[in-house]
Amino acid sequence: xxxSKEVRYTARSITPPADRNGxxxxxxxxxxxxxxxxxxxxxxxxxxxxxxRxxxxxxxxHPRRHGRSRSRSRDRSRSRSRxxxxxxxGNNLYVTGLSTRVTExxxxxxxxxxxxxxxxxxxxxxxxxxxxxxxxxxxDTVEDARRCxxxxxRTVLEGRLVTVEKVRCFSH
Length: 172
What we know:
Keywords: RNA-binding
Protein name: RRM domain-containing protein
Organism: Oryza meyeriana var. granulata
Structural class: alpha+beta
InterPro entries: Nucleotide-bd_a/b_plait_sf (IPR012677), RBD_domain_sf (IPR035979), RBM (IPR050441), RRM_dom (IPR000504), RRM_euk-type (IPR003954)
GO molecular function, one term: RNA binding
């Protein structure tokens, strides 16, 4: 007595198994392989719709899109230190790492140890009117500014380690 096994077909099966005679049990054509993803199959494009646009391969410059040329920015970066010296003689200082409690008066008192202070400007958040943690200090002379950088850089003010640097100008 022969025992026949019942075979179940799933959506993933490619072809039905053959019986003992080597013939397929199903009389229908070979089932089509189906995707296991749940997303719908991609739609075929309608012959009436235009083909997708491609970017132009021309090398003509677009003045609004590109802004400045690369060669100009490279030239500017090479001579930046010379230009900075012309724009900033060295008496403008950039101070970072400040506590939110530091006021312009506190800064003036802190920097006056090393020379005469022309002006101080603590940068404030426009919405909260609280210090953003950095300031600009203008010293009377370049020597005073150099002394401040030398002796006040990486010192503690109101419990915070502050940095003092010469301002770098980046005007366009």
